[in-house]
Write the structure tokens for this entry.
Amino acid sequence: GFTPGDLPARFEAGTPPIAEAVGLSAAIEWLEANEEMESLLVHEQQLASRARDRLGEIDGLTLLGPSADRTCGIVSFVVDGVSAQDISVLLDLQGVAVRAGHHCTMPLHTHLGIAASCRASFYAFNTIAEVDYFADKLIEILPKLK
């Protein structure tokens, strides 16, 4: 649901996202100078496919979302009986950053009957070796959490 603020505050535009606009401009310039969009998508899908293959071997882990060829470099997952936040914290201690929570999809999480999920994101600057490092560290920490 959504509850608007009281008048006149509900019509306040707020501060424009100036820093975000400057950052977006720099990102577009970098992409135009360094990457072709089609090859970038293929690279992301290769990374996501590798991650899905590796994570698919872990007992109790459920992958969420479409197959790697139908998405970009994002892999979301849950592990039976293990808090997404705990996974995130222990991976962080190993130098691996993942997001834990609802990811702006709380209605979907409610529909799926899960409290939260983890999300790993891969992009142009990531490598297959980094995907393997992430999977290896996840496999390493999970026994500590079960």
In short: The helical segments are 18-34, 37-55, 84-93, 106-112, 128-145. The two ends are 35 Å apart (CA to CA). The chain is about 50% helix and 10% strand.
